[in-house]
C-alpha cells in the first residue's frame, strides 16, 4: 500500500512514542536524553497537538512516522521549530517517509507565515540529517558534550572570578558583534533586557554559574552555565565569549576550567555547550577541548515571495512577447 500522510491525531500517540523511543535507544551516550524511555516519549508526544501543526505517515494502517512543529514566539515571528521529540520514522523507508511528511507540513508552516524552519536531530541519526539536507536544510548549530574533567592548563591563563552585575553589558555586545562577522553572518537581533534579566537571576542561584575573565583590570571573557533542560545530569554553557584581543591566549580554556570545576562540585556527570557550525573559532575551540557532537540544529530559510507564487497565480505575464 502507498504511503499516506494525514493529520496527526490522538490515536497516533502510542505508536508515535514507540517510534521516538526506539529511534533514540540507538543514539544514546553519556548525558543522553531521556527519549529512549517510552514513558517520557509518550508524555512529550502527548503535547504535540498543542504546539502547532502535525502530520502522520501511515502505511497499511500502521503509523510509520510523524512530524510536528512548534509555532512560538512573539507576533510576527517567522520561525517554526521542530524539536527533537516532534519527529520520528520507522527505519524501513525512512527517507521516503521524511520527504512525504515535510512536503505536507511545510505548506502549513508557510501558510502560517513561518519561513524559517529548524529541526533538532540526534547526531547519531545521520540518515535523518542526510534526508533533511536533501530537502534544503543545513547544519546551523551543534550541541556537544564532554566529561567534567578540567582541560589542560595553558601557559597564559587569565584571572577568573564570579561575575558582578556591572560586568554584563560589555561582553554581551562583544558576542553579538562577533557573530555578525563572516562567515557566521548572524543578524544582531537581540533582546538585551531579557539577557540582562537572565544574567542577574543567574547571579543569585546556586545551580547557575556566571564567570568572567580579566587581565590588568579589563574584562576579556565570560561564560554562563546551568543545568541542561534535556540532557540528564549535564551542566551546559549558555553563553561563552572571549574578546578578540584575548583569543589564543588561554582565556577560553581558563573559563572552561572554572566551569568544569563548578560542574564536578555540583554533581554533574557531563558538560555541554552549543556552537554555530559556521563559526571557525568556536568550532575549533569546542572540538579541540573534547566536546563531541550529540545533536544538530538544521535550518532552512524559505523565500517569503512564495506566498504569491502559488498554483493559482497566472504566470502568463512572465512569458516573453511572441
Describe this structure in words.
This protein is α+β, with helices and mostly antiparallel strands. It has 2 domains: 4-136 and 301-307, Aminopeptidase (3-Layer(aba) Sandwich), CATH 3.40.630; 146-290, 3-Layer(aba) Sandwich (Aminopeptidase), CATH 3.40.630. The protein has 9 helices and 13 strands. The protein has helices at 13-24, 38-46, 48-51, 94-111, 126-134, 168-179, 192-202, 251-265, 280-288, and strands at residues 4-7, 54-59, 62-68, 79-82, 87-89, 116-122, 138-146, 159-162, 209-215, 218-227, 234-242, 270-276, 292-301. The protein has a 9-stranded mixed beta sheet with strand order 4-6-13-7-12-11-10-9-8, sandwiched between helices. It has a 4-stranded antiparallel beta sheet with strand order 1-2-3-5, with helices on both faces. Strand 11 (234-242), helix 8 and strand 12 (270-276) form a beta-alpha-beta unit.
